[in-house]
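User: Please fill in residues for this 388-position structure.
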């Protein structure tokens, strides 16, 4: 790896987080302790929810949310094809069927009109994603779920700290799920968080994450004989005190981290807004974007092969780049599952073949951003791809 590499992402970790992790290691309590509870409350408060349930990953959180809502074989869950594959995989975990609907060309979230058309008597939930941290139309999607009396599961893994019309990301669904993988706004290394106002659902999720132990969970405050009593089929989806300590430190610095990411996004806008080859993200005036990644699109006359060549060339110059996201319904697993009736989702398919994720994290300097853009422009000209 080159010393001057500009990576696609990088976690923002300081001495505060290191000190908190060290304090946990010195304490001797490494699981089910007070640091987890503190982290849960910090995230729940930021999401405008009553309860937080810390888990081992965002994927585990989605799995548990579906289980807690009683979704299983024979049920359908409407979801987006434009996301990381875990969104749809969680639906398969419980034996239900993902029903993909096309996305809105501007927000890249699910098209509410397409959601309405996809609802059937077998629809038991809508699993919606704030693509790249953009909550646009999430209020409309929540209204559709309410109209049909089906729960909205908010996959807010990419959106901690954002809001729509003053309403925080994580508060639109019956349940929301955040992820804290190292490329997210904050990180716990690996980890996730379920947020909800539903006390019964929260109790079920606490039990599910902890090997099916009693609904009130067995914690450091309640070390009773219930530890060996299991009331349902559960999982080892717990978050350790070490991961939670990292999360507490990150939450204390969340606004600083978000401001840093906003600064980087502004710099990209300033430098790229006049480039006719690039379609920039569109953010509504009612939205506070929580920048997960910075993804632009190449103009409509570019092909997927040209985009892939640009990504490969940027990586050869030690600059991170990626194609966020390939359509889920085009993944080999889903091609096999959907072979009898593969959906045609033209907006998602058109957008996906031209997406280009640029290096993005809170510590990226103006000099590094300028180098990324200069390299991109040189590659476009050199390859004869730049539309003059």
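Assistant: Residues filled in for all 388 positions:
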């Amino acid at each position: 790896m080159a010393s001057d590499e500009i990576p696609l992402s990088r976690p923002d970790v300081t001495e505060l987080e290191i000190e908190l992790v060290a304090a946990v290691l010195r304490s001797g309590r490494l699981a089910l302790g007070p640091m987890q509870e503190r982290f849960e409350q910090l995230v729940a408060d930021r999401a405008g929810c009553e309860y937080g349930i810390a888990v081992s990953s965002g994927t585990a959180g989605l799995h548990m949310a579906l289980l807690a809502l009683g979704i299983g074989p024979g049920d359908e869950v409407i979801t987006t094809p434009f996301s990381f594959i875990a969104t749809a995989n969680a639906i398969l975990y419980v034996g239900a069927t993902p029903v993909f609907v096309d996305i809105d060309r501007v927000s890249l979230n699910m098209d509410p009109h397409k959601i309405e058309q996809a609802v059937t008597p077998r629809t038991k939930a809508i699993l919606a994603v704030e693509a790249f941290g953009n909550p646009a139309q999430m209020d409309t999607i929540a209204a559709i779920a309410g109209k049909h009396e089906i729960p909205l599961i908010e996959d807010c893994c990419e959106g901690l700290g954002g809001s729509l019309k003053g309403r925080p990301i994580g508060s639109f669904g019956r349940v929301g799920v955040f992820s804290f993988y190292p490329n997210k706004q904050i990180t716990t290394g690996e980890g996730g968080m379920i947020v909800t106002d539903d006390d019964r659902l929260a109790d079920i999720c606490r039990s599910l994450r902890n090997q099916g132990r009693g609904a009130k969970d067995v914690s450091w405050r309640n070390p009773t004989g219930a530890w060996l009593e299991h009331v349902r089929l559960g999982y080892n989806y717990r978050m350790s005190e070490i991961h939670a300590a990292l999360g507490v430190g990150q939450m204390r610095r969340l606004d600083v981290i978000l401001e840093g990411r906003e600064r980087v996004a502004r710099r990209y806008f300033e430098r790229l807004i006049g480039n006719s080859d690039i379609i920039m993200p569109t953010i509504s005036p009612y939205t506070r974007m929580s920048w997960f990644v910075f993804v632009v699109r190449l103009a409509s006359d570019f092909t997927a092969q040209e985009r892939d060549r640009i990504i490969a060339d940027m990586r050869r110059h030690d600059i991170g780049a990626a194609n966020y996201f390939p359509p889920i319904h085009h993944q080999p697993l889903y091609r096999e599952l959907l072979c009898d009736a593969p959906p045609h989702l033209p907006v998602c398919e058109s957008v996906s073949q031209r997406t280009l994720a640029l290096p993005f994290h809170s510590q990226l300097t103006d000099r590094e951003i300028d180098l990324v853009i200069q390299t991109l422009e040189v590659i476009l000209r050199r390859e004869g791809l730049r539309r003059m």
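For context: The chain has a mean pLDDT of 94.
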